[in-house]
Write a structure and sequence with these properties.
single chain; six-stranded mixed β-sheet; 18 strands; about 5% helix; mainly beta; Immunoglobulin-like
């Protein structure tokens, strides 16, 4: 372990950088469980050449303190249930702001408090309305949850929840089985569990494979203790 710890790691800051995803997705990276923070929804494209006119994000149960941020995109509205809980947030362009074609990337921001469920994923079903130059509207629903790769259902924006951490080494007990190590530890230098280790960095992965007595960590069991370096 010590030989790997002292190895030079590649820069990790860009691994969760916002990119123009091919669909509506979380563009701000993971969130911390039981904490408030800003979540950015990236709208990578419109609909078959038509500009995005409206975006509705459904708020899942357990997500609280929802407050959308004003945006140059257009008017933002919230929908609440009978108890006053925010159940959806919708951004709508003015008619004059709709572009003649799909040329822009949009980022829509919501401040919220994530549930106290570290090492889990929460899903925000999204509904995208596009308007073509002739006024024709098209709706695309991004609502798939853990759908297979060949599914025709578009995937919902997915937010990874992590426990609070500090720079350097952190010790966690994982209270739910985790098999998506890339999703949960994309900004970690290395993850250790016993004699097994994981890193998204190919150079570090090569070191893991070449270290006697160390094997690749591919999943984490419920109740397992891990060490993570950030």
């Amino acid at each position: 372990m010590q030989r790997l710890v002292t190895a030079t790691f590649a820069a990790f800051a860009g691994l969760f950088a916002s990119t123009a995803h091919a669909h509506i997705s979380i563009a701000s990276g993971p969130a911390f469980a039981n904490a408030s923070g800003e979540v950015a929804f990236g709208v990578g494209h419109g609909c078959e050449g038509a500009d995005t006119y409206r975006v509705q994000i459904d708020i899942p149960a357990g997500v609280t303190s929802v407050r959308p941020e004003t945006s140059d995109f257009g008017q933002v509205d919230v929908e609440t249930d009978a108890a006053g809980t925010v159940v959806s947030v919708t951004w709508t362009k003015s008619d004059a702001s709709v572009l003649d074609s799909d040329t822009q990337y949009y980022k829509l921001l919501v401040r919220l408090k994530a549930p106290d469920q570290a090492f889990t994923k929460i899903y925000f079903p999204a509904h995208q309305t596009c308007r073509a130059k002739d006024g024709t509207e098209t709706v695309v629903d991004w609502v798939g949850i853990d759908e297979p790769a060949d599914s025709t259902v578009e995937p919902a924006p997915t937010l990874y929840l992590l426990p609070a951490r500090f720079p350097g080494w952190n010790k966690f007990t994982v209270n739910t089985a985790v098999d998506d190590l890339k999703g949960f530890f994309a900004d970690a230098q290395i993850v250790w569990s016993g004699s097994k280790a994981y890193s998204i960095n190919p150079a570090t992965t090569e070191l893991i494979a070449g270290t006697s007595g160390t094997s690749a960590l591919t999943s984490i069991a419920d109740g397992e203790q891990i060490w993570v370096k950030y």
